[in-house]
Amino acid sequence: MHALILSASHAPLEYSSIDQPTQSVDYETVELHAAALNHRDVFIQQGLYAGIKFPCVLGSDGAGFVNSQAVIIYPALDWGDSPSFQGKNFRVLGMPDQGTFAEYIAVPRENLFPKPSHLSWHEAAALPLAGLTAWRTLFSRCMVKKGEKVLITGIGGGVALMAAQFAVAVGATVYVTTGSEEKLFNAAALNIAGGVNYHDDDWDKQLKQSAGGFDVIIDSAGGDGFARFPAICNPGARIGFYGASLGKVNGLSLQPVFWKQISLLGSTMGSPEEFKQMLDFVEAHQIRPIIDEVFSLERGNEAFAKMEKGKQFGKLVLSIKK
Fold this sequence. Notes:
Mean pLDDT: 97
Distance between the termini: 13 Å
CATH topology of the largest domain: Quinone Oxidoreductase, Chain A, domain 1
Oligomer: single chain
Largest sheet: 7 strands, mixed
CATH class of the largest domain: Alpha Beta
Order of helices and strands: EEEHEEEEEEHHEHEHEHEEHEHEHE
CATH architecture of the largest domain: Alpha-Beta Complex
Structural class: alpha/beta
Number of helices: 9
Helix content: 25-40%
Number of strands: 17
CATH superfamily of the largest domain: Medium-chain alcohol dehydrogenases, catalytic domain
Number of domains: 2
């Protein structure tokens, strides 16, 4: 079969032939129709990820056929026994285990779920990791409810977009931040209440003036901007975060955090049970992941280059089945 092979840090991926996975007792072989990129894949290519092993086939998101059944893949392995946190053997598909940037993948049978019927192959491939991460952060951790005011930072990325779509669907009033006026314009189509450009020095004051305060904030960047969140939180607010791409937080004052009784809630991926809940929600509300561009598997390096520039609005998808 053909796959994209990463053999070293900072190296381009090679479109090459490797052995097709063999069938085993507890595993099913999926004929993949589409896969999708996540920032994790680019971080691994850049050497910015723990425990990298080469060569590897990246990719956590995928959808395809098993025994004539259309399936979508839970994008991780060995969540563990607790619904509260992942176990020590938890890992994401695509390094060290073979990922979805290939024509076939073998995964445990319990990783396979029926593809939501309203989604195309490309949309289905765009959903798993982003949808699951957004679901757990919003609902399992922050327990977003109808009527609450929600701020989602970095709109344009896959998880942030899914979080915005989910929050709107449940009846929350959603505001967003982004570093691009074009992305703010595009985000208006999501039925959001408003947004600001985080390059503006007073972005937090703009949000305070327009929204009054937030019950939930969803963030993936961290960095010094995180320190401004408590001031725009309502009492009893929850701040959920699933990444820290801008690093540590300087200048965070704890006084408003304890005085307002604000909860800081870290979140990573989600369990298979949460994955099923997310799929049911997507189907019930007919939600479609936003796709920026589709590339053939052979053009995978072009997709990686685009993600590295950070200009996309939505998911970058690889079309596998011709």
